[in-house]
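Table S2 (text version). Query chain:
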Amino acid sequence: MRLRPPPENQLVNLATEIAFRLRLKRVTVTAGLDDAALGVHVAATTVAEPYALRVDAGTPEADPGTCTYPLAEEGGTFRLDTHGGPCNITYRRASPPGGYTLTASIVWKVHWTPSVNPDGPAAADPALPDGASSASTPVTVRESEALVR
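Corresponding structure-token output:
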């Protein structure tokens, strides 16, 4: 993920744009029990697929405090560019020493199938909550003042 302006050079009242390009794959895991002697043959597969990027500004001194962007997939690569987008975080005050902590999370839609087949029909009950993979980075926000004569 790349921030524009860079994380060490954010400015008050200037929108923070995000560029994102990452190769992600859906993740599956299967658990099963196959015991012919007991007559037990059961399996379940859990599937997680990336679908959004959620960004948290790390402070109430930003507007909005969070933005969630849908991810677009092109051949297994997910891309995002928020230039001119409807939701970009704008810091309203300079940061304290050490900066604000911006957190970006890939949000995963999670479902399960009552079989070993990850492409089988998704079970509706019980529904599974979304998952998230997160990373944080400090952002330094400065004020830039100009004198006009």
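Notes on Table S2: Residues 61 and 92 are 5 Å apart (CA to CA). The chain has one domain: 2-32+41-142.
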